[in-house]
Amino acid sequence: MRLVGLMFVIVLAYGEDSFITKEEYAKMLYHNPRGIGCQKCHGEDGKGKILGRYREQNRTILIKAPDITKLPFKKFYDALASSKHRLMPHYFLTKKEIKTLYYYLKVKKR
Ligand code: HEC
After folding, report:
1. 90 neighbors 83 (Cβ within 8 angstroms)
2. 99: CA distance to ligand 1 center in Å?
3. How many domains is the chain built from?
4. Distance 37 CA to ligand 1 centre (A)
5. pTM, 2 dp
6. What is the pLDDT of residue 78?
C-alpha cells in the first residue's frame, strides 16, 4: 500500500512538469519546428523582419520575411505545405502543427 502511495506522490511531483499548455506547446513549435525557428526570420511576434540588404544600381534592395500575423488560414497553410519558396526553407509539418502555429500567432496579437 505504501508503495502505491509513494508512486502517487511521484506522479504528482513529476506529472505537473510534463503537462504543457496549448500556448506553451505552440510557442515551442514556433521556435523549433524541426528546422530553423520561425522567429529567426519572421520575428518573435511574427510581424516580419529585414533579413538583409544589398545595393544594386544605386538602389538599396531589402530582403524581407513578411508579416505572417494577418493571413487567412488557407494562405498560411498553403505557404507552409508548399515546397516552392524563394528563401524560406521547406518544413515537414502536419496540418495539426500548422494549425497550432497559426493559433500561436493569433494568441500573440492579443
Ligand atoms: C530563413 C528565413 C525564414 C524562416 C526560418 C521561416 N520563414 Fe516563412 N518566409 C520567409 C520568406 C523570405 C518568405 C517570403 C517567401 C519566400 O521568399 O520564400 C516567407 C513566407 C512565409 C509565409 C507566406 C506569407 C505570405 O504572405 O504568403 C508563411 C505563412 C510563413 N513564411 C510562415 C513561416 C513559419 C510558420 C515558419 C516556421 C515554421 C517560417 N515561416 C520560417 C522566411 C522564413
Report:
1. yes
2. 15
3. 1
4. 10
5. 0.85
6. 96
